[in-house]
Amino acid sequence: MSKHNFTEQTKKAFPWLIMILMSSVTFVGILSELMPSGVLPLMMSDLNISEVQTGNLVGYYAIASAIFAIPLISVTMHFNRKYLLLLLLAGFAISNIIDGLVHNYTIIIILRIIGGICAGVMWPMIAAYGMRLVGVKHHGKAIAVIMAGTTLGISVGMPIMTTIGNDYGWRTEFIGLGIVIIGIALISLFALPSIPGEKLTKSSSPFTLLKIPAVLIVLLLTLLGVIAHYGVYVYITSLVDEIQLVGGVERALLFFGIGSLISVLLAIKYTDKHLRLLTILMFGLLIIAMIIFLTLSKTTIMGYAAFFLWGLSFGPLVTLLQAAVSRQVDTAKDVATSVQSSVFNFSIMMASSAAGMLLGMYSPMSLIYLAIALSIPGIIISFLSKKALS
C-alpha cells in the first residue's frame, strides 16, 4: 500500500491499532521518567546516596525535558517522523538498560539526562505525528488515545513496576523496561507509517507562536492546571496521612486511577467536539474534590469520592491542553506542542517547589488551598476563552 493511500484511508477510518501502539510509547515514556520514585529507598541503599541525590534522578530528567524540548523539536522538524521516534525509543531503551547495569551515580545521572532529552522531544512530536495520520475532525481523539498511555502508566504501570522493583530489585525493573521499549521499537519499525518532516519557517517558529494570544491563553491554563494538580499530587502521601484515609495511599491511588481512566475514555470521545466544556469541567471537578478534602474527608466514603473526582479531573489534563494549543496552528504542530510541553514540565517543577515550601511552613491542607486558588482563575479563563478552546 502506498503512503498516499495509507494516509487517505486512515483519514477516513480512525486507525485504532496504530494509535494504541503510539499510546504504548507514552506509557513507557512516563514510566521511564517516574520509575525511580517507587524504588527510592532501594536505590539509596544500593548506590549509597542521599535522599536528595536520589530525588535528582527524577528532577534532572524533568529539567532536561523542559530545557531541550523547544530547541530540539525545532532542529528535528525536517526529520522523518517514524525514524525520529525510533531513534528516541532507542535512547529510552539504552539509558534504562545501562542505568540498571552501572554502579556509578554520575553516569546514572548522565543517562537520566539523556532519557529526559529523549522525552522532551517525544512528548510533543508523537502527538503531532498522530494528528498527521487522521483527519482534522479526529485530531482531539488521536491526542486523547496517544496520551492515554500516560494515565495508564501512572495508574497501572507504576504500581506494577514498583512491585517488580521491590520483589526483584530496582536494576531488574530498569533493564526490564528497556527490553519492553526495544520490543515496542521493533513493532513500530514495521507497523508505523513513514511520514516526512516539515520545514521550519519563520511563521512556525516558537517565538512567532508566542505572539498568538490564544497560544498564550493555553500556556496560562497549562501553568494553572499543572501547578494546581501536581502541587497536591507530589505530596499525595502526606495528604493521605493528614486525612487518615482508611486503606492508605494504595486505596487513594486506586480510586484516583479509576477516575483517571474513566476521564480518558470520555476525553477520547468528546475532546474534538467539547474541548472548552471539558476544560471547564477539569478545573471545576478539581475544586469540588479539594473542597471535599477540606470538609468531609474524615468520612471514609467521601475521602474515596474526593480521590475519584480528582482522578476524573486529572486524567485528561495533558490531552485537553495539547489539543488546544495544536488547534492554533495549521503546520508545525510539533513546535506548538513542544512549547506547551516545556511549560508543562516547568510547571511541574514549580509545583514541587511551591508545595514543598508550603508543606514546610503549614499542614498538607495548605496544598488544597493552593489548588483551589489556582483552579478558580483557571475555570474563569476557560469559560471566557471561546477562541482558544473552540
From TrEMBL:
It comes from the Bacteria. One of its GO terms (cellular component) is plasma membrane. It is a multi-pass membrane protein. CDD domains: MFS_NepI_like (cd17324). The lineage of its organism: Bacteria, Pseudomonadati, Bacteroidota, Flavobacteriia, Flavobacteriales. Residues 17-390 form the Major facilitator superfamily (MFS) profile domain. This is MFS transporter. It is found in: Cell membrane. One of its GO terms (molecular function) is transmembrane transporter activity. The chain crosses the membrane at residues 16-37, 57-76, 83-102, 108-130, 142-162, 174-193, 214-236, 248-268, 275-295, 301-321, 342-361, 367-385. It comes from Arenibacter certesii. InterPro entries: MFS, MFS_dom, MFS_Efflux_Transporters, MFS_trans_sf. Keywords: Cell membrane, Membrane, Transmembrane, Transmembrane helix. It holds the Pfam family MFS_1.
